[in-house]
Amino acid sequence: MKRNPVFRILAAFVAVILLTAVIAIPTLAEQKGSITFIGSASAEGTAMTLIRVGKIADGKFVLDDLYSEVDISNISDEDAGALMEAARSIDDIVEDNNITGRVARLDEAGEALWEDVDLDGLYFIKQLDNFGTIIFQPTLACCPIYEESETQYDVVAYVKAAFAGQELFTGSIVLTKRGYKDAPLENAVFTFWHKVYYTNSKKVPADVEKGTDDGGSYYWKRLGKELTTNEKGQIAVTQLPFGTYRFVETKAPEGYKLDSTPHDIDVQVYSVLSIENGAYIAVDGAPISLDVYNAILIEPQESSEPEPSVMPGEISADESSQVPPPPAPDQSSQSGPIQLTGDDIVKYVGIGAVVLISLVVVIVFVLIGTGKDKKDEEEDKK
Question: Which of 121, 140, 163 is the C-terminal boundary of a domain?
Answer without folding.
Answer: 163
